[in-house]
Amino acid sequence: MSRLRTERLELRPLxxxxxxxxxxxxxxxxxxxxxxxPRPPASAPDPSRDPQAFANRCRVRERERSLGTAFDFGLxxxxxxxxxxxxxxxxxxAFQSAHVGYWIDERLAGKGLVAEGLLAVFxxxxxxxxxxxxxxxxxxxxxASLRVVEKLGLRSEGIAQGYIQIAGVWEDHQRFGLTLEExxxxxxxxAARLRAAxxxxxxxxxxx
Length: 208
Hints:
Elements: E1 4-5, E2 9-12, H1 19-28, H2 30-34, H3 51-67, E3 71-77, E4 80-91, E5 97-104, H4 113-128, E6 133-138, H5 143-152, E7 155-166, E8 169-179, H6 180-203
Parallel strand pairs: 5-6
Antiparallel strand pairs: 1-2, 2-3, 3-4, 4-5, 6-8, 7-8
Helix pairs in contact: 4-6
């Protein structure tokens, strides 16, 4: 099982015994997340409410990892589950590329945790999986998600029109790319950007 650690996070694949924590976060954040995610088939069991469906989801993800077609990471902050970062649609051959997606508990949004986790996942994708390129796709009106890639300074590749069906609507997405060469040249810079962002937040005055 692949495990990654950062200063504030542990990242590892979800297992069936994680259902209670996953269920609590997904249920509490259901309305907040639904507007950014593809709508599941109406006939499919909901893994956020059905322990067996969640266990099946974990088994599918385990098989994808064994085949090298996808890699999933749950995020734990201070011992509590708080989100996911997934490397999906891994293409080999001449492509050596993948898509990266993420979500986080609404209560922890804006604290830089996703960007911190992404940096670790990029290292995994390039240094362990051997990919040459990763892509992050974000709806242009999803300001919170855009701030994540802005913190890392990812390169924009423009707008893909009608790219993914979200909540029943074909939505445009802004695509961001990172290549192995960029990663090798910029990994220390991206880590420094995150440290600077955290220090900036820590120095801001608070009310009360």
